[in-house]
Design goal:
By secondary structure, this protein is α+β, with helices and mostly antiparallel strands. It is 29% helix and 25% strand.
């Protein structure tokens, strides 16, 4: 997995949460330039969930014979708002990437369950939940 270098531990936590939501599990094999994990579970279910990832940029699958690209995620929408920006009044808007990460780490299912946002203000975290 190619991830944001500054948030490597959080990226692994996010991947672990998404794999659990897809009914699978994973183990960290190597933490060098990229995260290398062993995933046990349904790859199609993981593919449907991994598109929600905030920190993962690309993922490859290795089957012994070689590697192939599993997912390449466009994160350009996360550059729209910057951390610490003002959105009218005294409300501080958090980075969209961090909002998505919080939703993923909470292991929320899309369209189901209860999600409590104790810091509701601009609604960015709630918006990422939808």
């Amino acid at each position: 997995m190619e991830v944001s270098q500054d948030l490597r531990a959080l990226a692994y936590g996010e991947l672990e949460a998404l794999s659990e939501l897809s009914g699978g599990s994973l183990d960290l094999i190597e933490d060098s330039r990229d995260l290398v994990v062993e995933y046990r579970g349904d790859l199609e279910s993981l593919r449907r969930r991994i598109c929600r990832a905030a920190l993962i940029k690309r993922a490859w699958i290795s089957n012994g014979a070689g590697e192939k690209l599993f997912a390449e995620l466009d994160r350009s929408r996360y550059r729209v708002l910057r951390r610490g920006g003002r959105w009218g009044g005294d409300t501080v808007v958090i980075d969209l990437r961090i909002a998505r990460l919080l939703v993923n780490l909470a292991r929320t299912e899309e369209g189901g369950g209860v999600f409590l946002d104790p810091f509701v203000g601009s609604g960015i975290i709630a918006q990422e939940l939808c």
